[in-house]
Prior knowledge:
There is one protein chain. By secondary structure, the chain is of the alpha+beta class. It has one domain: YjbQ-like (Jelly Rolls), CATH 2.60.120. The protein contains three helices and eight strands. It has helices spanning 19-29, 58-67, 76-82, and strands spanning 2-8, 14-17, 33-39, 45-51, 86-92, 95-96, 102-108, 114-123. The strands form two sheets. It has a five-stranded antiparallel beta sheet, with helices on one face. A three-stranded antiparallel beta sheet has the order 2-7-4, with helices on both faces. The protein is elongated, with a radius of gyration of 15 Å. The mean pLDDT is 87.
Amino acid sequence: xxxxxxxxxxxxxxxxxxxxxxxxxxxxxxxxxxxxxxxxxxxxxxxxxxxxxxxxxxxxxxxxxxxxxxxxxxxxxxxxxxxxxxxxxxxxxxxxxxxxxxxxxxxxxxxxxxxxxxxxxxxxxx
Length: 126
């Protein structure tokens, strides 16, 4: 099952929790066991799994420090290169297997923009 999630970002750089949206796709797929692929098809955006935080996710705070530099590190694609366009997850009994407190974040490096997040749920065989 393939679905596109649309996310409208509101800041130049931000991390947006998309866990609930990905979980909704997995729920709609009605699978017992599956591989779940999350892909962001933009050169200046990315996706990452990390622990939930009441502040920015830890990786976002680190990226802000690194990207404050002038020159080549100031390009939006540089931030996306530090993260990744894809995450691979596992679903069992129709639920994502995330660690305690883990969340899925879309990283925006050149917003505000309308972003696509592709989710592919592939049921296990046998």
